[in-house]
Amino acid sequence: MKKNIIIAILAFMSVTAIVYGYSQKNRADEQEALAMENINRAEQAELMAKKNAEEAMRAQERMAITLENAMQAGENASNKLKSGKK
What we know:
mainly alpha
């Protein structure tokens, strides 16, 4: 009788351990899928950040050229005013 109770308890513990292990495996698989998705999102965000940084550099270069042109135009206008007053 005691053997049967012990065997039943061990069988129950074995089944419980198998079910718990299976549920943990499913959770781990879900977490792995989420991790891969997050890695892909991070890579896409990194690419977007690089593109935005490059665009910012181009905008800064255009701004510098525009500023230089505006300063030259102001200088030309100032020279015309000075030469017109003479």
